[in-house]
Amino acid sequence: MNKLTNDLSHVTEADRANVWHHLLQHKSLETTDPRIIVKGQGLRIWDQHGAEFIDAVSGGVWTVNVGYGRESIANAIRDQLIELPYWAGSGGTIPGALFSEKLLTKMPGLSRVYYANSGSEANEKVFKMVRQISARLHGGKKSKILYRERDYHGATIGTLAACGQEERAMQYGPFPDGFVAVPHCLEYRAQWDVENYGERAADAIEEVILREGPDTVGLLCLEPVTAGGGVIVPPKGYWQRVQEICKKYDILLHIDEVVCGMGRTGTWFGYQNYGIQPDFVTMAKGVASGYAAISCCVTTEAVFEQFKDASDKLSYFRDISTFGGCTAGPAAALENMRIIEDEGLLANTVAMGERIMANLNALMEKHKVIGDVRGAGLFAGAELVADRATKEPMAEAEVSRVVAEGAKRGVMFGMTNRSLTGFNNTLCFSPALIATPDDIDAITDAVDGALTAVFG
Prior knowledge:
The protein is built from 14 helices and 16 strands. It is α/β, with parallel strands linked by helices. It folds into two domains: 144 residues, Aspartate Aminotransferase, domain 1 (Alpha-Beta Complex); 271 residues, 3-Layer(aba) Sandwich (Aspartate Aminotransferase, domain 2), CATH 3.40.640. The longest helix is centred in the last third of the chain and has 22 residues. The model has no long low-confidence stretch (mean pLDDT 96).
């Protein structure tokens, strides 16, 4: 029992009466209890009623990469907080210095770590850096920021201006100027009938650059694998061409690794699957596996040097993240990395990723409502369709029923929802990197049962 209380009925009512939950229409709680997660161990979680579930989405939002119940991370946080809980980011701390050193050994070509406390905030830092570079070095030009349809970069007004998921941005405008969309690269929803689809999708980015004017574009911001927009793995040739285009027009490349970072795709970072060299990399969720709040904006030395000009009192990056100074984050992140290394979790992610893809492909042969299966490492999606021949998307309400049926079978998996008008139809899977073959089979067995229950 939790040390805070053994009265879970009181907790349920306190939650209903006082908590404003993320991403939830609270009208539903007038007739049903909120689900309170009270315990986690490994890949399993338990709610206030004692029901046990396999967590196939790592904390609901792709975060708890090394699983629940890691005493060594909790102890690292406890020990550090007793020693020193906080110091403003304008100064240094022992865990902040040591984690940055360790992190950069996994990111050749990058050399500076700026700490913050959420993915949205880390991405906002990049946008501010690019705008400051534009103001100081380009006379206000090269300030436009390109983002991709279906990608998501955060919940602030600035990051929503770069949101490729229109339903997430609806009702929150007007947004800042200078954010421009480029086409998505989902070949299953092909926009061009060509043989080399990846290269063609990248060329579409160049077309936007030429339309806007290369001297006005400062940054291209992309997820390595689109996450909440449908688990989209870019086609062959895409990333190499993107890199060429950015170099051709002197455009900085920002890879948003908030979801993919720290092993999710089987490499430390998703971009490392494609042999490219970004100028910025942001990360958050898996950095400390949810045990403490931390995010990072990592840059090249070339970017960093542009903020060192003693002759201009405003030349430095005039920004602060209050809780980027909390030492719990880097202390937890150091131990999180040690676990990933010592337990061989990158190799396990590759092996279990192959297993979940094989299982999902087998389900696609059995269930005609699965139109496409895609993924990288322990990050997979199954797009549901009402008609496989026409690729008509399954209605969001029907996909929600599948998720609910999965929970009835003891597995929590996710879906795209309230994001893409008409295309909230992809089931999402991202179990912790510690998943075993039995875990993977249990997850896909639950999917099989849920699809049968809903569609026959």
